[in-house]
Amino acid sequence: MATVTQMKCACESCLCVVALENAIHKDGKPYCSDACANGHADGESCGHTGCGCH
Asked: Which range marks the domain in which residue 14 is found?
């Protein structure tokens, strides 16, 4: 049986895959950054190369 160690960021428009051990967990969901975890309150993206989430 395999153990899941990575998941897609829970932010819908984000393309990032995040290691669960490094993720920011909010409401039981993994996020790749504070920006995604906070729903992009200030309109900022996660800042990862190639990802234009909002």
From this structure: 1-54
Query: pLDDT, tens digit, for every residue of 16-53?
Result: 999 999 999 999 999 999 999 999 999 999 999 999 99
- φ, ψ of residue 17 to 5 degrees: the values are -110, 130
State both tokens at 36.
């995604």
**DSSP string for 7-46:** EE-SSTT---EEETTT-EEETTEEESSHHHHTTSTTS---
Flag whether the pTM goes above 0.85.
Answer: yes
Give the CATH number of the domain where residue 18 resides.
2.30.170.10
